[in-house]
Amino acid sequence: MSRTRPRTPFRTAAVAGTAVLAAALTACSGGSGTADDGAAKPETRISVNLTGKQAKAGEPVRVTLAEGRLKQVTVTDSRGATLQGAVSADGRSWTSTRTAAPGTGYTVEARDADGGTAKADFATAAPEKVNKLSLAPGKNATVGVGQPLSIVFDHPVKNKAAVEKQLKVTTSDNTQGSWGWMQDWSGKDRVDWRPREYWKAGTKVTLKAELNGVDSGPGGWFVRDYTTGMTIGRNQLVKVDLDNHRLKLLRDGRQVRDIPMSGGTPGGDKASWRGKTVLMSKEGTINMRSETVGLGDAYDKMVDSSMRLTWSGMYAHAAPWNAAYFGSANKSSGCIGMSDSDAKWVYDQVQVGDPFEVTGDDAKGTQALNNGYGEWNLSWADWQAKSALR
């Protein structure tokens, strides 16, 4: 009968800035702790690159075995999550695929090919500043074919490439897309992911922002991961022709309805924006005041069936006060106005994320990239160029 060789207690020592654990990595097969010739088996040492209670965050964890081959390494943080990693081809070392997060304790457990084990602990220094973010659309939302994934950061992101590398998008049909950086309308850093073309109906989309342990620069560290997902709904879009004063809803490429409307008064600040925009939100009945969009005290109205198209205040909505101009002239203060019944019908049909393609000469220019979701106004090549990884 074989008996288990007694394990030698661990010793911890500081060697050239590396925590070294000296432990007899004892095989599970029998033996007395000596080699076949009766000599004592030499201790096997493992070292961990991060040490103490104030270790540097943002570094991968590296575990090295002095002799023999590593079989398995588990690195667990103080919340019970594990860092994934891989053993090197020669079996002498293991490196985590993610970096150590700030303000976190870690436990390292190593097992060698002979069944011996060793353990180490370290903790990283707390961050001086934490960066957070907000995600759009909301989790598990069903959206239209123009909806991008959008991330707005609380603080500036200097290390854009490092952040973008950790933003993982997967789709149910391998949709091609790219991230693009911009300054949000709010002035904060923002990055959006849009497909090359409009989404296909039914596509499932998942974003995993694996940012825990990533340094954004002076804006601070990320100290958690984020996950969101969305499903692409009906294939539909809205075409707005400012020159002919018509709004058309198309579904699966077929026109469903053609509605007379009145756009923004041309020739000044009250003109509408042209370009491809995306329905940002369905806001129902809201109070619209002209001073909030820089138009003085021209109006202060409760407006029904309000559908936001830009941050600057361009909506599609009911505008019964402009009924005399529907289908014949653009006389609004910048929005797309329709009758009460037509606006309610459109409101009931559209989805957040539906594209609104606005064309015509009666416009004050093309919607800006960050004024809502203006990325569809860029060519695919120009959009790709906004990635930090290009």
Describe the structure.
With 390 residues, this protein is mainly beta. It folds into 3 domains: 11-123, Immunoglobulin-like (Sandwich); 133-231, Immunoglobulin-like; 236-377, L,D-transpeptidase catalytic domain-like (Beta Barrel). Helix content is 5%, strand content 41%. It contains 3 helices and 28 strands. The strands form 6 sheets. It has a 6-stranded antiparallel β-sheet with strand order 1-2-3-4-8-7, with no helix packed on it.
Summarize the structure.
By secondary structure, the chain is mostly beta strands.
Topology of helices and strands:
Layout: E1 11-15, E2 18-23, E3 44-48, E4 60-65, E5 70-77, E6 82-83, E7 85-87, E8 93-99, E9 105-112, E10 117-123, E11 133-136, E12 141-143, E13 149-153, H1 160-165, E14 167-171, E15 177-183, E16 189-195, E17 204-209, E18 226-232, E19 236-241, E20 246-251, E21 254-260, E22 272-278, E23 281-289, E24 300-308, E25 315-318, E26 336-338, H2 340-349, E27 355-359, E28 363-366, H3 380-384
Parallel strand pairs: 12-18, 19-27, 22-28, 25-26
Antiparallel strand pairs: 1-2, 2-3, 3-4, 4-8, 5-6, 5-9, 7-8, 9-10, 11-13, 13-16, 14-17, 15-16, 17-18, 19-20, 20-21, 22-27, 23-24, 24-25
Summary tags:
mainly beta; Immunoglobulin-like; 3 domains; 6-stranded antiparallel β-sheet; 6-stranded mixed β-sheet; elongated
CATH superfamily of the largest domain: L,D-transpeptidase catalytic domain-like
Strand content of the residues, in percent? 35-45%
In total, how many beta strands?
Answer: 28
Q: Helix- and strand-based class?
A: mainly beta
Q: What portion of residues is helical? A: under 10%
What is the number of domains? 3
The strand order across the widest sheet is 1-2-3-4-8-7
Describe the biggest sheet?
6 strands, antiparallel
* N- and C-termini, Cα separation: 64 Å
CATH level 1 class label of the largest domain: Mainly Beta
- State the low-pLDDT regions, or none: 1-42
* Average of the residue pLDDT scores: 89
Shape: elongated
- Per CATH, what is the topology of the largest domain? L,D-transpeptidase catalytic domain-like
Q: Specify the CATH architecture of the largest domain.
A: Beta Barrel
Radius of gyration: 30 Å
